[in-house]
User: Fold these one by one.
Assistant:
Number 1:
Amino acid sequence: MKEIVVISGKGGTGKTSLTASFAVLGGQNLVVADCDVDAADMHLLLEPDFAHGEDFFSGELAVIDQAKCSACGQCEDVCRFDAIDMIEGCYSVDEIGCEGCGYCARVCPDEAITNVKQNVGQWYRSAIRTGTTMIHAQLKVGADNSGKLVAKVKKMATEVAGNEGKYWILVDGSPGVGCPVISSLSGASLAVLVTEPTVSGLHDLRRVHQLVKMFRIKSGCVINKADLNSDVRRDLHRFLKEEGIPVLAEIPYNEQFTAAVTNGKTIVEWDADLEQLVRGCWEKVTQLADDR
Amino acid sequence: MKLIFTTQGTDWESSMDPRFGRTQFFFVYDEESEEIQTHDNTTIENEAHGAGPKTAQKLSGFGAQVLITGNGPGRNAATVLQTTGTKIYVGAGDMTVQEAYNAYKNGNLTKFGEV
């Protein structure tokens, strides 16, 4: 079983369009794990059936028992997140502002405040239209992705791959360089770095590559919108060469990316030229992931 | 020398866990006394953030001089481990504990931070 994780650092580079295309090309021989849970949108392209869903709990939230509260206001005074306000004569907790630190509960002389585990969303095991399984999640408004949720999604995907005898786990990785993306990367056979020749594209590629390098994970790069800026493209190539990162594909700017998404299709199902490019890229990805 | 492995099980034939922060078990081996000690770390699943530093803190309680793992710790966890002076060897993520130990003895594992 091998795990391919697609990450980008910068948003809007085409990471999910590419990952969903890989899912189509890989077909039944892979399990899809959508770990980009903050703004999950693979489901728009792969049509999961949401067959099995479970609540997901993460972090804590302060709850005030109004029967015990004497309205002394100490909780409001100590809250560093300004998440406690007097509303209509009662102190109440702003669910989005509260970080669950527990300071209010500590100082409350009436012992009226308790921290409760927060239901932040659901994770799902779905059949998708490519004839395989996808593990994905949906967070409630204001909830954030975490290493915990990513670890859960990946664990379920690994279980499914084991049970169903799938060879590949294809992970749509989390953005940035923090906890969720570290969790996305751990245990990966290959990291596919999707970038574009823009200043922020290159900047974020460097950052995310630092992480990949630190974890000694093999990587390859896809340059999307490759003809956007020839100067930065040259810088990109120089950086990739210095770091010994192979270029898996260069995809010229193509408005068919947007057209495909608008029509609920992946780019490989929508445009013959893109299909050819991305198919070649997927072959390189699987070869590189299989190399020891 | 006391060594600590990140593992998915509790014996020599168990697979290593490539993850540091969210490793399922610790497998501690004392070369002098040949004693084995294991620790269940699965409650780390409940931590939303900061799994690495928490695991590093827990690990420091075992007094091992050497850590053998897969990908290696993230930057925050590495800082914790540095202060405790733990030597870190990586690249054993696909091995069993026994294979990882042999690879370490034969000098086939990479020291963390050296490429």
Note: DSSP finds eleven helices and eleven strands in chain A.
Number 2:
Amino acid sequence: MTDGLSAGTLLAGRTAIVTGTSRGIGRALALGIAAAGANVVAVSRGEATPEADEHIHSVRCDVRALEAPNIILDAALTAFGRIDALVNNAGIIHFATPLQQTDEEWDETIATNLTAPFRLSQRLANHWAAQKQPGIVVNLCSVESDIAFHDQPAYAASKGGLLGLTRAMALELAPLGIRVLAIGPGVIDTGMTPPRPEDLERIPMHRLGTPEEVADAVVLLLSPLARYATGSILYLDGGYMTQ
Amino acid sequence: MMAARFGGRRVAVTGAGSGIGRATARRFCAEGATVLGIDRELSGLTETFATYPTATMTAVDVRSDDALAALDHFGAADVLVNAAGILRRAGVLEHSLADWQDTLDVNLKAPFRLSRQFARDHVARQAGGVIVNVCSIESFNAGYRHVAYTTSKTAMLMLTRALAYDLAPYAIRVTGVAPGMTETGMNADIRADPANAKRLTAMVPLRRFGKPDEIAAGICFLASDDAAYATGTVILIDGGWHLY
């Protein structure tokens, strides 16, 4: 969080589940949400989030597994006794032209980016409904929930679908006090590939976003500051979508 | 003049045994196209093409490899219309995984697989072509108790745009229509009760349900040379539903 803003108490006393936390945006989300005062249940397939401390509890789990929703819910309740929020971040991308994208790539993309968030959100919503408590889901969509990039048709479909899932769940769950929101990052610098000049030229701010900036926006949506927002998507793209 | 709009064109339509697919298949026939109709049941297809005996009918599940084989066997299609779709209603808290998976497989994966095959064939033949996907107003707005359907149709909107972007260099246009509440079997149950029908149409600025023919007209426009400069385009045909 930018110096001068006191974010350290925005999420005090809350517990948030974050998926896909081993690197990149997910790792920044876990750290950023914890820095805002929340307890974090960090879910990843591989390495545990290294900074695990008393506010970050790591769970090793493939979000696509049939039992994943129950495993994650139980782990969160065991670690912190309550759950207030879910951040569906885990996602994959397979680059291929529409001529070459395989059924296996399609299935894996839809299962990870769309079906897993649906199942996890549904499980949490049932938990919150049974507890008669409010809850918040934030889905990591993309500018690709609205516009196309080349050679990733399954990913585009999954991110478009995730925006629809956000709206559909928000519509039905609003009366229960459960908010469902989406973040639409543009090109984020995850340190994996250096930005190309032509990419920067397309972004009105002429720079990539950082994982920490995505985390700040998610903290905002999770916080009481965004309490009247549901079903909406916040694009975080340096102005990319204005064009 | 209108009757010849698709003269010499070969058009494949999924879901041609009922509703929007049926109206679309018939309109292409009436305008001179050679049509392949795909649907699960032969009975629906037979009724669709009762007055168009030259049409080809194939009763297969759109999810199956047989559907791809049917398109391949038909050969040299100029137009593919992905109209087959299913709707499973359930509250989000109890929506079953099986219904979710079936919906995504029929409404999203099948159109992807058929479109991929259509595009491969076109690139091999260096022929242009047009894909028209039947999206929905739910590609833009959520439907109550429709979590899987809304998700599938929103995903289909982005599939349409992504395919349009990638296939434009091959002169393959990828477009869609987004129907509002249209008089088809999919929603016959909720339209049957007059009070419910009145409540629903009160939400439509034009104060009535759409007719399958009115959606077919949009599909045929997008498939025609009149729309030669349109790709990635999804036309809302919804009686003004999206206005409020």
Note: Chain B has a mean pLDDT of 96.
